[in-house]
Structure prediction request, 1232 residues.
Amino acid sequence: MSPAPHRFRAVLDRVAEEVAALPHRGSPADYIPVLADGDPRRFGMAVAELDGTVYGVGDWRQPFSAQSITKVFALALVLSLDGEGMWQRVGREPSGDPFNSLVQLEYENGIPRNPFINAGALVVTDRLQALTGDAAGRLREVLRTESGNPALDFDPQVAASEAAHGDRNAALAHFMASYGNIVTPVPELLPAYFQQCSIEASCADLALAAGFLARHGIRADGSALLTRSQAKQINAVMLTCGTYDAAGEFAYRVGLPAKSGVGGGIVAVVPGVCTLCVWSPGLDRRGNSVAAMAALDRFTTLTNLSIF
Amino acid sequence: MSPAPHRFRAVLDRVAEEVAALPHRGSPADYIPVLADGDPRRFGMAVAELDGTVYGVGDWRQPFSAQSITKVFALALVLSLDGEGMWQRVGREPSGDPFNSLVQLEYENGIPRNPFINAGALVVTDRLQALTGDAAGRLREVLRTESGNPALDFDPQVAASEAAHGDRNAALAHFMASYGNIVTPVPELLPAYFQQCSIEASCADLALAAGFLARHGIRADGSALLTRSQAKQINAVMLTCGTYDAAGEFAYRVGLPAKSGVGGGIVAVVPGVCTLCVWSPGLDRRGNSVAAMAALDRFTTLTNLSIF
Amino acid sequence: MSPAPHRFRAVLDRVAEEVAALPHRGSPADYIPVLADGDPRRFGMAVAELDGTVYGVGDWRQPFSAQSITKVFALALVLSLDGEGMWQRVGREPSGDPFNSLVQLEYENGIPRNPFINAGALVVTDRLQALTGDAAGRLREVLRTESGNPALDFDPQVAASEAAHGDRNAALAHFMASYGNIVTPVPELLPAYFQQCSIEASCADLALAAGFLARHGIRADGSALLTRSQAKQINAVMLTCGTYDAAGEFAYRVGLPAKSGVGGGIVAVVPGVCTLCVWSPGLDRRGNSVAAMAALDRFTTLTNLSIF
Amino acid sequence: MSPAPHRFRAVLDRVAEEVAALPHRGSPADYIPVLADGDPRRFGMAVAELDGTVYGVGDWRQPFSAQSITKVFALALVLSLDGEGMWQRVGREPSGDPFNSLVQLEYENGIPRNPFINAGALVVTDRLQALTGDAAGRLREVLRTESGNPALDFDPQVAASEAAHGDRNAALAHFMASYGNIVTPVPELLPAYFQQCSIEASCADLALAAGFLARHGIRADGSALLTRSQAKQINAVMLTCGTYDAAGEFAYRVGLPAKSGVGGGIVAVVPGVCTLCVWSPGLDRRGNSVAAMAALDRFTTLTNLSIF
Prediction:
């Protein structure tokens, strides 16, 4: 039984209407100047169905800074290239602490809690760099291929701004290097990591690019990026660790595997059904977009599409 | 389309066979003498379908100490009686620390991370006691009704043993009382809590009793214990917090909402499909049954029934 | 060469004058109602010379709640009765955390950092109770004997108020009991501890009673309470741990071994010269009397009597 | 009354004899290869009297790597040049944690606990660099002048080895920079810091160089490096924070202000009497020289020269 095309069209319109009425929408990230200009009134939401159909509402074709959303794709690349080895160097447990905390890292001897906190993502990028010699380049390549958007690219201004305010990430990288859990020289690793974070993409791009997670590992062209088991595992890590230290709250309210970024985007997966990407730059105190979380909450309530 | 009755019969047999070959099965809990005698070679597994059909393999009719599995039912009772108020006093985030840690409790001013760590469960029991005057009695009642087993009961020897080794829980209760987050006098609260933990039930009993979580809140008799939204929320909290500080690992390997107990039992939910309960007394270092986790891992792999 | 009697008379007068001009004097402890009435304008200061001469300024004969100052005497009693064994159960390092923290206790498996934080004092009282059967009584006895004041006594109202607000200390005691580091039943230990804290004594009483610490262990009657080495050791622990988590600051500003209490008193020792006790109920955020710290700071500056 | 010259000659001989009989002497630091060759059987001890007389026993003229002992001199220089301002950026409390922990730094927003843990010393060097443009050079200069040894110098091999294993210190510096508490660019700061640590000096050199701390701030040439109050304050910080997380233990056993280094040296001060420096490369698990601590323990016991 094939569902009607654009089956969520009416739901998207209703969600957009309800989100427009939200009284408080948070504030844009301010740790780098280039993000601080984000306008919390901007809002876009896209759905990509399994067959690659994509449609949306609001600013769904507007590129924004993907930031930590790229961590999902970096992890998928490393798992596809290298299999289970990655899990010797990074855990799969929620962190229970803010996303750039050094405390847990110290108590656990340089092994980050999971691949979606900054420390864990640095380890993943370190591995991807060692495997490919060009971590950021390979990431851009997979995003271009899966989204079908050959113009998708880094924003050099964002990458430069990250680097100029990169002391916390430099501290994390040197700290893990002191435990032997970073092997790329830190002055080479950080630029690759900042470039990865600086990807500009739209809701349409990212919903399409994440399609393999809803298709149990199958890429847009029908080949396998991941095994069924690996795709399931990434979804599980997204659910338990994908939204900084609000993963429990997000699972409770939304009930979908998801990954957020401080650019205001959130990618979510309904396994076997579709992927979603929502964007609005205003963040709550934990770093997740207020309007994007509200939109996903409403979407799952209206469609009963939670995994639970 | 109605599935065949006992549709997982063959899978259960195969899982039991594979589990029988496990070389390492952990050690029984030893914090109270009465649990330390558990035999890691014992193994039972039951499936309860939505219509109340129940069947199993191995020691699936053997009563064991439910321990922390009862925390799910206590939470469901409080939500059904009292709605969202509970979440002012207990969080919904994974703890990132062992199940009886005081550290996080101190940093977060007496508000436990979630209702499934001991501190959080004490708060839930405190609320249930305030609402009903007999927390443990109400818990036994709902378990009897949902399992259809009127003989299901506390084990006074276990409750007494918990009390005799209850200093850690007494510390947690007094500590939260110092923040005003426990209102029942501690010498009255602890016996109710220890009694709750001492419930004896079989895999069949617990799989049946948890059926409302697979039926979106509907009890065995067709009435609603919880709203659809509340049932979804409990499943979400089970997935992110139900297996002590191995929730991420469990989601990764098994991919089902679940709650474990140090008696060696684990209850798991496949929303809309069935509930499972597995028991084997040998625990890993995080307090989860080795054989029960392995059985659920195999079950979801063989059936592709993960939520992800 | 014998110094003139009352040789610090003029210094005391000058210190009192300067302290009277202090613009901010903190607030009285408010964790129990009976202390919250303390008037921050009250101020007394006494000096006890080695020969037992005592004199003072302001409210130096006014009894106040000794609180944690009694911890020094409890420690001295245990060392005199039991020697070095105590140090297997309590450390000698500054805590780096507030005085009733459970965090460090957990990381260090139930061994408190030092005998002057609450957890450590509970262990000392536990040992004194085991050694004597009447910890609080023996403490009162030594204070009466050394101060020469047979009327010195507990304040039952304070002890009752401590008990009524004793959840934090109950949590500490149960927590250490769970590690086997408290052997007295908690419901018996806590009353002894709260009674100990409720001692009422004046600056004159406490300066005299602490005289053995300035006389290298020798009591008022010329007999030895402690060896020279033990007296030195208690002074060292007072310097590094005697003023909650402000020990470094206190050493820096005052430079004398000292022990403070939340009743607003501070006892300080100039080894080989004299003991001092200052009282004023207004506390800073770390629990030390603002005016008493200022008075000791001025005293050591005017006399050059720091140990450094 | 002037004491006899070389008044501690006999004590030194006896201490050396007793130390020679120590069965366990620890292991040399192994975090950089150049220190790992240190021979725990080497032992030297020097006393510098107030008038600049210096004498010793064993290898008291053998240069060794001063390491963290230099932190005292860097702090003295900054206080002499800049007064109290330093204390806005670094605390004066014992750390309660190992000397290079990031945990406390995070909880306290980038303000190190004290100037003698690595984080605090980096802040002091940062300030000295800002004040002088050549932190390491000024440090060498004051050490040469006060010790009277114009040949005292850095060991470039040690500095290079520190840099090659400097990830932990780089992490600390970047971390504090992220809070704005390091202003020198990290790639410029670290070489200055590593150079400072690499000073080679003998027991004689360091005992003489620290003389101003026993002379209440007065340099070898009679001029004032510090005020009397500042000298007292540095002694206080040495007592409470000078021996990593064993400061309480050191105060208890030895009872003198002191600063240790992982090269195996310890400098100690008897205010108004003399300074001591002891060296032996074997360290205990907290980073303090086993034989040097034992020697100072014996010295104070034999002479009754503790400050307590």
